[in-house]
Amino acid sequence: MNEASRWRYDLAQKMAPFYSENSKALLVEIGGSVARGWADRYSDIELGVFWIEAPTEEERRAIIERAGGVLKEVWPYHPDKQVWSDLYTIDGVEVDVGHMTIESMERILVDVLEHHDPTFLKQYVISAIVHALPLAGESLLTQWQDKAKTYPDELAHAVIRANLGFNPAREREVFAARQDILPLYESYSFAQKRILTLLFGLNHLYHPGFKWIDRRIEALSFAPPSLSLRFKEVWNSEPVAGTRLLHALIEETFSLIDLHMPEVSTVQARAVFERHPREWEQAPKEFIKEQ
C-alpha cells in the first residue's frame, strides 16, 4: 500500500465506528484505489456500508454529522445500482459512501455466480467486494469474498457472448476518411470498452470498470501485446491510421477468444465486423440505361 493509500485508509478506520455503532450496519469496508494500494493525490475515500435493512436518510445524515463531515450530496436509492449514496468531506478529503442491504448483495452474488448474469453493474459490485478491505464486520466480507473466489466458466461464456458484437469496420473507416471526428471517437471509446469487457471475461475477472485502465490491463494473462500503449496510439494517431490500429486489436481479441475459449463462436461477430458494402463513385450502369 502506497503512502497516499495508507493515510486515507487510516482516516477511514477512524470513521468506520460512526457507522458500525448502528446495530443495523453489519459491514463497513473501504474499496477503490485505496483498497488496492493505488491511491494518488486525486483519490477520494470510497466506503461501502451493508445494512440489515435500508438506512433512512436521517440515519445517513446523522452519521455524517457525528463524524464531523461537511455534507455535499445525499442521493436517494438507485434501483439499477441498488445503493443509496452520500458524498461529504472530512478535513477537506472527499468521502464517497455507498449503502446497500445485505439482502441485495447476496442476491447479486446468486445472480452472477449461480445464474451467470453478465450484467456490468452486478459484476462491478462483486469486483469491488473482492478487493475491499474490512473496517468493521470482517467475517461477512470474508464470507462474500470466499464465495466469489471461483469465477464460473459459464459466467465467462455469458460475458463474451453478450459483448462480442462490434460495428462493421467499414463504418469507422468511412468516419476516418471523412474526418468525421465526433462519431469516430465515440466509436473508438465503445470498441475499446468492449475489447476490455471481453478480455475481463476471457481472463475470468469480474468487471472492475474503466478507470485505472493501465493497471487493469496488467492483470490480464490473455490480451493483445502492448495493449495499453496501443490503446493510446489509436487516439494519438491520425484518424485513418488510428482506425487501422483499433481494427487490428479487435481482430486479435477475436483470435484470443478462438484460442482460449473455442466453445464460444466468433463466426457471426466476425462476419458483421468484416461486412463491407460496395462503394459507388457514380450511378450503376443499369440505372443509367433506364434513364
UniProtKB/TrEMBL annotation:
<feature type="domain" description="DUF4037">
    <location>
        <begin position="138"/>
        <end position="212"/>
    </location>
</feature>
<dbReference type="Pfam" id="PF13228">
    <property type="entry name" value="DUF4037"/>
</dbReference>
<protein>
    <recommendedName>
        <fullName>DUF4037 domain-containing protein</fullName>
    </recommendedName>
</protein>
<dbReference type="InterPro" id="IPR043519">
    <property type="entry name" value="NT_sf"/>
</dbReference>
<dbReference type="InterPro" id="IPR025117">
    <property type="entry name" value="DUF4037"/>
</dbReference>
